[in-house]
Amino acid sequence: MKTLRDIETPALVVDKGVMMRNIRRMADKFAGHGVPLRPHVKTTKCATIAKLLLDAGAKGVTVACLKEAEHFLEQGIDDLLYAVCLTPNKLPRVKKLIDKGAKLSVIIDHIDMAEMAADFCQKNRLTLPMWIEVDCGENRTGLKPEDPRLIDLAQAIFDHDHLTLVGVLTHGGHAYGAGAVDDIKVIAHEERLAALAAKNRIESHLKVTTLKVSIGSTPTAVHGETFEGIDEVRAGVYVLGDLFQWQLGSHDVSDIAVSVLAQVMSVEEGKKVITDAGGLALSKDRSTQKSDQDFGFGLLCNENGQLFDPQAIVNGVHQEHGEIYATKQQPHLPPDMMKVGALVRVLPNHACMMAAPYDRYYVVDGDHVIIDQWAKTTGW
Amino acid sequence: MKTLRDIETPALVVDKGVMMRNIRRMADKFAGHGVPLRPHVKTTKCATIAKLLLDAGAKGVTVACLKEAEHFLEQGIDDLLYAVCLTPNKLPRVKKLIDKGAKLSVIIDHIDMAEMAADFCQKNRLTLPMWIEVDCGENRTGLKPEDPRLIDLAQAIFDHDHLTLVGVLTHGGHAYGAGAVDDIKVIAHEERLAALAAKNRIESHLKVTTLKVSIGSTPTAVHGETFEGIDEVRAGVYVLGDLFQWQLGSHDVSDIAVSVLAQVMSVEEGKKVITDAGGLALSKDRSTQKSDQDFGFGLLCNENGQLFDPQAIVNGVHQEHGEIYATKQQPHLPPDMMKVGALVRVLPNHACMMAAPYDRYYVVDGDHVIIDQWAKTTGW
Q: For the structural domain made of A16-240, what CATH number should be given?
């Protein structure tokens, strides 16, 4: 029997029981709405977890880079939506994926990209399925439903033999800035209505009735109440959960399934503990900085995933050092971690950022026994 | 001839001419002092660059994790100092490295770790060279020169047949918080004096005269004036340079040799440009937040590495999106980047954090022609 005491740190740990509960909760909600999920697997970057999501009813997965798409395709997961606006230099790799059998679709928001893609596809005898990204208020990429460029872009895609217009897609990412659950409910409405408005405008212009609608983010998926007219919902962080989603009201702290295992390298009795999980191991994400509770660079658990009493956070990081100081807010550091060689687990501010650099998950279920290892992908 | 237009983004780019100038400047300075460098290669994580450093006179390299040590040893670089305090779970991997021929030394600051290492080494018939880390004011790891535990730790290492006390090591990392170059000069003095004080105390207690002294950080190496009594200087960021070091006064902006190549995916004329280099590609490091100039998530150059006029920064990041907005500070975004498919290069706040996730450098020399590719290591 191998446990977390037998591996090297820093290491990425996932609690399977907690994760499966998260997966089932979201699957049950959307089964109730009769709307399939296409989970965003940029959070987990792991084909084993993607298969558990598909087993729970997901219709496919969403990826944030083509390296992810390759990882999933290699493991037989072929229904892939690449949901970051395409750039021209990625076209050859997109072609390779489609040639290998991926049912890959991409998103764009600019007519220049449609034209560059059309040229490439014509030269390479490729048909490329595309979604138009709609901006429902996030103000990142995408066109507003009322933007005249929306129709021009739709027409350009529709007209070109080598491009297929699948539908419209939006991301209610501004829910991450919401102050309260009621605000998230409003944003969930806006997200759905913006996508439907864009779809209706394009359909009425092109005289078609075939466009699909893809929406979603973890907060709007959790708190959204109506999904009528929606063809699929993309959410991703809910699978692992994190401190920021907890603060947003997406789930409880006990729903956080992912952590980084670290070992204590240095202690100053009562004052300071230094671990080997620093800025690279935890990421420098500070999502909770403006939350009700600021968790620094992560919240500390023991090796079994139980919160310390009193709670303690990672106050600072260097590249390979995590710093835990006694402060006014946490005057008494947990004695259990006050020993060179002690193991701690750090819950993330932002699961996607923390998990990204690791090449595997060590899988536990409620304690520190390793029941499995799951490979994941990294980089681009 | 391949150029930056022929590769996929995000990608890590190093300008060889600029880097070699950085390497030579530091090598010349320390050749003048008669003190060898042991550059910290956690910044670059690249054996090809390490060999260029050795060619320029470095006596060996410093690493921040054992994966780095393995990468360098595989490429024939065997003089390795692992300069993050050892934890017990890394002992088996340390042994493997030494068994494979690495002249590896480690650092510790706690007697418990000395005892655990001694037990392991005795059982495994290993002799482990150790440095004691001294805290010269950084307040991270290490013991103050006057701390009574310093002598106990030195005695414990000295007494054990399987441990060798190489010397004392310190890192003037608090220079990163210095307000002005004069403050850095003071910290450079403190760094040297703290290390020498610790060495003298231990030598006088143990009645030996053989201890080595290792010090260094990029700011204190650049601005330090006296290195008498010092056996080696560890600095790393100077090889690539970054915006934070520029703000600290370690070098000029034209000395920044590293950037991330990104491609524009979305534009809103005059208002907003979105690229494919986001929080993972640039890191979420915000080192310059409190500098005279806050560069957001990085300063933008064109594909040839020339700063745009007017200058522009990456204002925000999502996982795979970089956001460049027109603001009061930068009301006019450079027209050259206002086009889907345009290439930009982003100079980092903190080179070590930005370079970490990439598996290679695309090497250029003053323009956008790729003259080489250098493999690097990632992860732990």
A: 3.20.20.10
Contacts with A, B 120-159, CB within 8 Å: 139-142
Contact indicator for B255, B324 with CB cutoff of 8 Å:
no
Locate tokens 């090497």: which residue? Answer: B363
Cα A118 from Cα B82, distance rounded (Å)? 52
Which segments within B61-193 are labelled E, that is strand? 61-63, 79-82, 103-108, 128-134, 163-170
CATH class of B38-234: alpha beta
Q: What is the pLDDT of residue B311?
A: 86
User: Is the pTM here over 0.80, yes or no?
Assistant: yes
Residue range B99-132, pLDDT digits in tens: 999 999 999 999 999 999 999 999 999 999 999 9
Q: How many CA atoms lie within 13 A of B265 on its CB side?
A: 31
Report CB contact under 8 Å: B353, A88: no
CATH of A251-375, picked from 3.30.70.100, 3.40.710.10, 2.40.37.20, 2.60.220.30, is 2.40.37.20
Q: Inter-chain contact A341–B8, Cβ cutoff 8 Å?
A: no
CA dist B231 → B37, B199, B212 (Å)? 9, 12, 6
For CA atoms B13, B18, B23, B29, the dihedral sign is negative
Residue in chain A closest to B133 (alpha carbons) equals A266
| CA–CA dist B11, A65 (Å, integer) | 13
pLDDT (0 to 100) of residue B150: 98
**What residue ranges in chain A does DSSP mark as E strands?**
11-15, 61-63, 79-82, 103-108, 128-134, 163-170, 212-215, 232-233, 258-268, 272-275, 299-301, 316-318, 321-325, 343-347, 360-364, 372-375
User: With an 8 Å Cβ cutoff, is B281 touching chain A?
Assistant: yes
* Residue B358 DSSP one-character state: -
Q: Is the ipTM of this complex over 0.95?
A: yes
B167-196 residues touching A, CB cutoff 8 A: 173
User: CATH 3.20.20.10 residue ranges in chain A?
Assistant: 16-240
Of A109, A71, A110, A116, the C-alpha closest to A90 is A116
Q: Provide CB contacts within 8 A for A17, sequence distance 6+.
A: A365, A366
B359 shares contact with chain A (CB less than 8 Å)? yes
Q: Give residue B279's pLDDT.
A: 98
- Token pair 């087993």: residue: A55
**Residue B113 to residue A10, Cβ atoms within 8 A:** no
CB contact under 8 Å between A378 and B357, yes or no, is yes
- % pLDDT > 70, chain B: 100
